Input
Amino acid sequence: MNLVKTIGRILPVALSLSVLVACGDKKSEKPAPVKQPEPAKVEAPAPEPEQPAPFDFSKFAAIKNNSQVFLTTNAEVEAYLNDAFAKVENGQATSIEFPNVSSLFELASAELSSEGRAVIATVGSKFAQTNIDAASLLVEGYTCDLGSVAYNDELSQRRAETVKAEFSKYIPASKITAKWYGKRMFKKFKYGSREEYRRVNVRIQ
Output
């Protein structure tokens, strides 16, 4: 009987201690760390492609001595300019000797052909990509010997101004000088036919 009483007295105390121990364990538990979301990855912007430095047009050597080298088709102009600029960019040359470029006209006409417009577009676009402050264009209008002096003076002027206006689509008009000579310059260049005298010569100066 005494044993039963003793157990009766000890059991509640043991249970109380168990509860305290259990509560103490719960109080000592550390909360689980909250996982922080990973910062979103921000991709660096792609670097912009480097733009080629403008070609120094002060190194352009224009032919000013009425050279017999004339380019009259767009294929000739494109091939010549692509080759010349590539040599400068690759360090194979420090200047470009620019030949005369010509737009040819029909008899008594100051209207540009599609080929003439293509030639001007090629030259004008290439010129516009460079340092044009160092150079300008000279356009010179000519005619053959058919018709009066007065008529040919007026016709050569219209041809020169037509070419200047077309170039103005690509470069400032202030960089273009127009001159005209009528039939006074006929035979000076010794072209092979009258058709070749009906032209506007363009050169860089």
